[in-house]
Amino acid sequence: MTTLIYSHPSFFAHDTGGGHPESPLRLRAIDTVLKRSEFAALIRIEAPRASMEQLRLVHTQSHIDRVFELIPGKGEDIVFLDPDTIVSEQSGEAALHAAGAGCAAVDALFAGKADNAFCAVRPPGHHAMPEAGMGFCLFNNIAITAEHARKAHGIRRVAIVDFDVHHGNGTQAAFEHDREVLYASTHQYPWYPGSGAPNETGVGNIFNVGLPSGSGSIEFRSAMQGKILPAVDRFKPELLLISAGFDAHRDDPLASLNLTEDDFAWITRQLLELADRHARGRVVSMLEGGYNLEALGESVAAHVAELMKVPSRGH
């Protein structure tokens, strides 16, 4: 398999302040593991900037304007959009390249340049609502990617599977009235941001499975096999997108699920099988959460090894 990985120097310059869990150290941990020999075949690409037109596919102009108006100048202090969501001097650039990564990955896949792609980006995106950022997220990278794919490549059915420990309320909000985009999520429930109940079904295109605190591999795989994977299979997507959050790991400090690297490898294999069946193998995976650095690195390694179809160390 040919796998692309998108990143950009601005992701390391997005400063969230001392002690913030969503820090540049996350990408450094990922870089460290992806320098192992088994990942030598990864094709590394610098993510381009998203255009304003691409941001407007999902977000209101007032939200876009507010984000850039709040970006501090050189030498100025960081600015809080909300108690969790911070911008600094380079955050605008980072946010543009994060959204641009997914759009570029879609273009590459539809041009036949690769089988799939992993976008190692920050800030993350799945909490960003069309009209507001929140939960560490400025713009909704995965939603922008889905809309770009439909607009630029003429496809009709896009599926987004989100296994972050937190429900992707922003992604759900973007598509809950759109039958041509399926959004499916497993997440700890009840937990931040409070959405993601099973009865939130949109127009029949939203599939949520809330996992109680303490749930592990058995509950996660049961949710995926019982509800999420069959829904995607029935939907027959022409493109499969993954909101790849690794904070459901048992060592993550921000939640209380008990997944391991093997669970992330397993779900990646399941999703690749569905993509092979319906979407000519086209998968774009976008980094969301994951805040224990060692667990994040090893979980990404397991995920990317499956995308590449190569054995990961210890898996």
Helices, strands, pairings?
Elements: E1 3-7, H1 10-13, H2 25-34, E2 43-46, H3 52-56, H4 61-70, E3 79-80, E4 86-87, H5 91-110, E5 116-119, H6 141-153, E6 158-162, H7 169-175, E7 181-188, E8 206-211, H8 217-235, E9 239-244, H9 261-278, E10 283-287, H10 293-308
Parallel strand pairs: 1-2, 1-5, 5-10, 6-7, 6-9, 7-8, 9-10
Antiparallel strand pairs: 3-4
Helix pairs in contact: 2-10, 5-6, 8-9, 9-10
Can you walk through the features of this model?
- This protein has 315 residues and is of the alpha/beta class.
- The protein is 39% helix and 15% strand.
- The chain has ten helices and ten strands.
- It has helices spanning 10-13, 25-34, 52-56, 61-70, 91-110, 141-153, 169-175, 217-235, 261-278, 293-308, and strands at 3-7, 43-46, 79-80, 86-87, 116-119, 158-162, 181-188, 206-211, 239-244, 283-287.
- The chain has an eight-stranded parallel β-sheet with strand order 2-1-5-10-9-6-7-8, with helices on both faces. A two-stranded antiparallel ribbon has the order 3-4.
- It is globular, with a radius of gyration of 17 Å.
- It starts with a strand and ends in a 7-residue tail after the last helix.
